[in-house]
Amino acid sequence: NYRPNPYHNHIHAADVLQTNHYMLLQALDSEEYEFFIFASCLAAIIHDYEHSGVNNNFLIKSRDSRAMIYNDRACQENHHLAAAFACLSKEETNILERIPDEKQRDLRKIVIELVLATDMSLHHQITSHFRLLLSSGALQLEDEEIMLNILKVALKCADLSHTSKVDYLHKEWTERITEEFYIQGDLERELALNVSPFMDRLNPQFDKSQIGFFQYIVEPLFDVWSHFLQRKDAPFMVRFRENKQKYENALRMKQ
Questions:
Q1: What are phi and psi of 161, to 5 degrees?
Q2: What is the band of 254 on the pLDDT scale with cuts at 50, 70, 90?
Q3: What pTM did the predictor assign?
């Protein structure tokens, strides 16, 4: 039931799943932390399940049914979880049926926390908290709350990882999210709502929006993850910096 959105579609889910698994294997022993890695991979699969192609702010402004059901809080993310677990409850699609009930409850708790963490309104809070944990030296992997924070940051890195992909992949995903933004802007205009920043196809600000996204959203997140890995020169960071530099150069040439 992933919808054919330009960006939030089944290919994005598969990309996030693969990248999330890669990120975790850089940090965790696959056998010792098998359960947590599985939970995180399940969260990656469902993190945008039945995404409607617009952000939470649009759902709230337009009084969409998802906003009404979830009281304007993490409208998309709550729906992804509810719809995915409803699917998993069916006999023909229950891939968890052989897992003991107690473990299923633990799994569900972790997946809920991880998917809710992909709500961008929590982005700076999660990033700052993880930075604080790093600076305090309190990252004990045996602590389940610490592990949950690690899983949240890894999944968030995977969700935004197109910024660290090779040029042609990054270009493809950027074009897709830009078109999805413009579609939302078109809907906002049709409904006489204020068009959201960087979603107005009549006033494109592509390079400027990308630089802001790279600098204020993605870079702090990638920075704390690479610090956790103790690899400032990790391949994803190198590619990220290269992509960021291209946008800075493009904007400089236009000025």
A1: -75, -10
A2: confident
A3: 0.96
Contacts of 43 (CB under 8 A, 6+ apart): 110, 111, 114, 115, 151, 155
Burial of 162 (0-12, 13-18, 19+ CB in 10 A): buried
Instruction: Give CA 147 to chain center in angstroms.
Output: 18
DSSP-based three-state secondary structure for 49? coil
∠203-209-254 over CA atoms, to 5°?
75
* Under 8 Å between Cβ of 139 and 113: no
Q: How confident is the model at residue 241 (pLDDT cuts 50, 70, 90)?
A: very high
Q: Respond yes or no: is residue 227 known to be catalytic.
A: no
Sign of CA dihedral 125, 129, 131, 135: positive
Tokens of 166: 């090779």
Residue 6, phi then psi, degrees to nearest 5: -60, -40
